[in-house]
Specification:
The chain is mostly beta strands. The protein is built from no helices and 6 strands. The protein is 0% helix and 72% strand.
């Protein structure tokens, strides 16, 4: 409890940013901001200090941008 796992796959190595935003567009966490190897990756979002609600994880790489919706429940 208190952490949400996030998994993602990169088709090629390169700069990677994984940022989480609240529904108002405010950045609440940066989970990755570095060059990463191609392949599967896992990280966790600490949710203990987040309010219950919906959040959006945005993965940005040279291959494009992907989003995933997260829901924090209390």
């Amino acid at each position: 409890r208190g952490a949400a796992p996030l998994a993602y796959a990169l088709p090629e190595a390169g700069p990677t940013t994984l940022t989480v935003y609240d529904v108002l567009g405010r950045r609440v966490a940066v989970l990755a901001d570095e060059a990463q190897a191609a392949g599967r990756h896992r990280t966790t979002l600490a949710t203990a200090r987040l309010a219950a609600g919906v959040y959006v994880a945005v993965l940005e790489t040279t291959a494009g941008r992907q989003t995933q919706t997260l829901t924090v429940l209390r």
